[in-house]
Amino acid sequence: MSGRRVDRTAVALFLVVAFGAAWLIDLPLWLSGRGLQTPGAVVLMAVSMAAPTLGVLAVVLLRRPKGVLLATGLRSTGGFRSWWRWGLLAWLGAPLLSIAATALAAALGLFPVDLAGFSGYQEVLRAAGGDRIPLPVATLVLLQLGQIPIVGWLNVIPALAEEWGWRGWLLPALLPLGRWPAVLAVGVVWGLWHAPLILLGYDYPLERGPVGLLLMVGFCMVLGSLLGWLRLRSGSVWPCAIGHGFVNASAGLPVLVAAAGTPVDTATTGLLGWTGWLVMVVALGAVALIGRGRWSAGEPEQAGREQQEGEREQRRDDGVGARTAGQRRPGGGGAAAGAG
């Protein structure tokens, strides 16, 4: 643990703006009486992902720190070359985690699988557009799977709007608490931040209300540990955004392979469910072992120290300038007095 202290004022401002903006943006879903079925709900959910970025901007306006792009991981001292391997790991790892979580749930008998007729997906298609399905369902499943590499990259930008807040700014801001406390605290905050949607049944439609929110907090703590490791290990927020985007893109995998007649319970199945949490814990242990327990490339902490040192130097310079002006004023007042 370093000698730095948590800037409580900045953290409080960030949280108020990030949470307040999310509730404000999603408020029409509550006022309409239709919840997630409100027209334009998808647009509102996408826009609300920018709320953590608004929190960062509010802190920047308050504190006006130097080196904010480096400190928050949008820029790295080594550029793209310093983090591309971690971005590749996030890109490939997220879909693999989703596949492993779905396979584990199926192996444990938590949901029936139909890999021959994809009957559960046929039910979803019929519910969405009637009995007429234009292509063989197996072809549609393949198309859905083939879209993941495309949709995942499209998801990276809105995911970055979240990650710049959570892992870009908040995680380094809480590092004085210690790595694990900071990583887990960010996970808890991240999960609670989803409350406007989760309480309406988003992500956990079979466990609405507080139970769904608790499940979301658990999921965000586990996934946030992996993303936090990526942030600290790479010194960049971009691998976090890539991982976040591809987790979102591959989250619907269980729906594609489920058998008809039984709704997919996201509390047990897929990355959102406890089987997914187990898979991610194993993955976290694996990367820690491969990385020989190394968590940090040092850059987020170094950037924070550089930022604080720059601010201290600026304050010292301002103080010296003020004292110098005060010392010169009596002796050099002739010209000023004449001008007055």
Count structural domains. Answer: 1
Q: Which structural category do the helix and sheet elements fall into?
A: mainly alpha
Distinct helical segment count: 15
Output the helix-strand order.
HHHHHHHHHHHHHHH
Radius of gyration: 24 Å
Q: Which band does the percent of strand residues land in?
A: under 5%
Ends distance: 56 Å
Gross morphology: globular
Explained architecture:
This protein is an all-alpha fold and 340 residues long. It has one domain (8-321). The protein is built from 15 helices and no strands. It has helices at residues 8-31, 41-48, 51-63, 68-71, 84-107, 119-129, 137-174, 179-193, 195-198, 210-234, 238-250, 253-257, 274-290, 299-331, 333-339. The longest helix has 38 residues, at 137-174. It is globular and about 60 Å long.
List the helices and strands and how they pair.
Elements: H1 8-31, H2 41-48, H3 51-63, H4 68-71, H5 84-107, H6 119-129, H7 137-174, H8 179-193, H9 195-198, H10 210-234, H11 238-250, H12 253-257, H13 274-290, H14 299-331, H15 333-339
Helix pairs in contact: 1-2, 1-3, 3-7, 5-11, 5-13, 7-8, 7-11, 8-10, 10-11, 10-13
